[in-house]
Amino acid sequence: MSIQKPKGTQDLLPGDVEKWQYLENKARDLCRRFNYKEIRTPIFEHTELFARGVGETTDIVEKEMYTFQDKGDRSITLRPEGTAGVVRAYVENKLYGEPDVSKLYYVGPMFRYEQPQAGRYRQFHQFGIEAFGSTEPSIDAEVIALGYTFYKEIGLQNVTVEINSVGTPSVRTAYRTELQAFFAPVKDKLCKDCQFRYDRNPMRILDCKVDQKYGEGAPSILDHLDDECNTHFGAVQDHLTAMEIPFTINPRLVRGLDYYTHTAFEYKSAGIGSIDTIGAGGRYNGLVEQIGGGDQPGVGLGLGLERILLVLANQGVEVPKPEPIDVYLIALGEPAEKEVIKLLYQLRQQGIAAEKDYLGRKMKAQMKSADRYNAKYVAILGDDELARGEITLKKMETGDQLTVTLADLAANAAKTLFE
After folding, report:
1. In the chain, which end has fewer C-beta atoms inside a 10 angstrom radius, N or C?
2. In order along the chain (419 residues), what is the average pLDDT of each group of 10 residues?
3. What pTM, to 2 d.p., does this model score?
4. In what order do the strands lie in the sheet with 102-111?
C-alpha cells in the first residue's frame, strides 16, 4: 500500500506552484508600495500563546489546533493563524522601541483540524499584514485598502468589503448582557456550540451559520457604541470613501477571534460553495498587552491563498504563465555534447534560462522537448559547427535561423539572443 498525503493537505506541483508564486510576488510588491516589511515566525509556538492571544472561547483553540507534547514535555501547537506569532515576535524582539509604526507582513502555512471541503484545508496558506503602534483610524482604512487592492490587481471580480465595529471590552460588557437576555428564550434551541457560547461569548452566536434564524432582530452592537467607538468607526468609513473603496456595514459581523476591538472587516466573493469569506481582519488594541507587551495598539488582516486561487479559477481569471526557457541546447555527437554542457553552465551564469536533453534522445525528440518547454530559441551544435567554433540558433516563433560563434554566445548571450 502506497503512502498518501494526510487528509486536508495538498501537493503543489509544477504548473500549479507558479500560480502560488504569482500571488506571493504580487503580495510582496504591494507590501513594498505600502511600506510593509516581511517577517518570518516559527511554524510552531508554545500552546499558551494561542490560548492567551487567539482566545480560549474560540473554535480555533477549543477544537481546531494541532497540539502535541514535545520531548521536553512542553505543549507545542502548529500555528493556526498568523497574528499571535507576529505579536509575540514584536514583543520579544522589542520592535515597539522603534520610532515609527511597525508595519509587517507574512506569507506562509497555517494549520487547523477542520473538516476539509472546497477552499478549506487542514494545512492552508495566508498572506497577512500587521501594523503596530497607532490608534489612527486611517491605518485601519489603509489595511482594508491594501487587501482590496490585492484582490483588484490579481483580477478578482465582485469582491465586496463588509465592515463593523465590535467596540471595546467595556462596550461589549453591556452589550453581552442584552444579547443574553435576547437569546435566553431560545437558548435550548441553539446548536451545542452556541449553547456553550451563550455564557462565554454570546456575540459569537450572531456569526453562527446554523442559528441565523434565532438571531433575527437581535440588538445591534452599533447601538451600544460609546462616543470614542462611534468617532473611530465614522472616521474609518470616511477614509474608505475618500479612497473610493466600496464597503457595506454589517452589524452582525463579529469575527471568530476574541482579540478584536473597534474595526472588524471581511472580504466576500461567491463561488466556493457555502464559503464566501476570502479574507478578513480587524483592530486588536489589547492583544500586545495580553501577550506580555506594553499597551500597544494593532490592526491587521489575513487572506487565504487557497480560496483566492479557487475563486480565480471559478471566475475564469487567467494567472500569468511563467516565463519560458530562453534557449534549449541540442548536441549532435559526443564532442558537441561536452561543449554543450560547458556552454549550458556559461549561459546560466549570465542569467539565461537554459536547458538540454538528459535522456540521450534523437534530434526530433529533443525538438519536441524544446517545444514543450516553450523555448524561445533552440541552439544546435554538431561536429561541423564545433570544428568551426560556431552554433546554429533557431528562433522558435518564426523559424528564422542564424549562426553565431560559440565565443560570442558564451560571452554575451543576452545581446546575441535578444537584441
Report:
1. N
2. 92 92 96 98 95 72 89 96 95 92 97 88 96 96 98 94 92 84 83 81 79 80 92 97 96 74 91 78 91 90 94 90 91 93 94 94 95 94 93 92 89 75
3. 0.89
4. 37-38, 102-111, 123-132, 298-304, 275-283, 261-272, 160-165, 248-249
